[in-house]
Amino acid sequence: MSKNFSGAFAVYCKMFIEQKRAVGYRYEAESVQLGYFDTFSKTVDFTDGLRLTKPLVETWTQKRKCEAEKTRLHRVTVIREFARFLIAHGIEAYILPPQKKSFVRNFKPYIFTVNEITSLFAAADSLPHKTVSPLIDIVMPVLLRVLYGCGLRVSEALALRRCDVNVATGVITVLNSKCDGNRLVVMSGSLRAVCEKYLSAMPVLDDVAPFFPSRYGEKIDKRTIYGQYRKLLWNAGISH
Q: Which residues pair with 183 in a beta bridge?
């Protein structure tokens, strides 16, 4: 994932991310947070010199309305590491002291009923074809079934390449998943048939092309899928 920075710290943001990735970190979610910080930095006056001051850091790391404490602490970690990077490059920066994790895990999973899953699949199968997103009505029904049938994370499914889904053997190869691990997932016979039919309906691309491509042949953005998922829930009569 690339990010265009244009604020006062733009050059250092790019260098910082490049350094992290050079030593093996993906640094994707963190680069998004730096992007938000980059936008925030445009509201600050740096006429007295480029510095990451204590007031600036404390303002940036304040808890936002409806923000989970875990999310805020992630921002804290990113800006603390960025401050150390700036200091190493001769820029004055305030390093926020470590903060105790006091958030309470109150997440409760929602378990779909069989009827809800059936309704969700039916809603996906009924998606109309749209010229602005000419492949989404083909992608969503299969993507949902892959997620449901194989237990993949959305990011893992969207990262699949054509060569990772072997419809002949019914085996999916998941590369660089959580903790940088790889694993093999076996599809059911019905899911394998769905994927085989899906491939016959998709444009012919090379083996390393995304299994779930956008209209431009690139990997679909997770936010696009989430938006479609919200619509499907509504169409299926399921509360978000």
A: 174
Write out pLDDT tens, residues 132-164.
888 999 999 999 999 999 999 999 999 999 999
Pairing of strands 171-174, 165-166: antiparallel
Distance CA 96, CA 219 (A): 37
Rounded to whole angstroms, how far apart are CA atoms 207 and 167? Answer: 13
Q: Which residues pair with 93 in a beta bridge?
A: 52
pLDDT of residue 108: 83
How crowded is residue 82: how many other Cβ atoms within 10 Å of its Cβ? 23
Distances (CA, A) of 141 to 38, 77, 117, 137, 212: 37, 38, 12, 7, 11
DSSP state of 180: G
One-letter amino acid for residue 127 of the chain: L
Q: How many Cβ atoms from other residues are within 10 Å of residue 236's Cβ? A: 19
Q: Is the pTM of this model over 0.70?
A: no
DSSP 174: E
Q: Going by DSSP bridges, is the β-strand pair 183-186/165-166 parallel, antiparallel, or unpaired? A: unpaired
Neighbouring-strand partners of residue 184: 173
Could you say which DSSP state residue 186 is in?
A: E
What is d(CA 117, CA 121) in angstroms, rounded to the nearest whole number?
A: 6
Cα three-residue angle 232-233-238, rounded to 5 degrees: 150
Tokens of 24: 């093996």
| Closest-CA residue to 57 (of 87, 27, 29) | 87
Q: Burial letters for 7-35: b for 16+ Cβ neighbours within 10 Å, e otherwise?
A: bbbbebbbebbeebeeeeeebeebbebbb
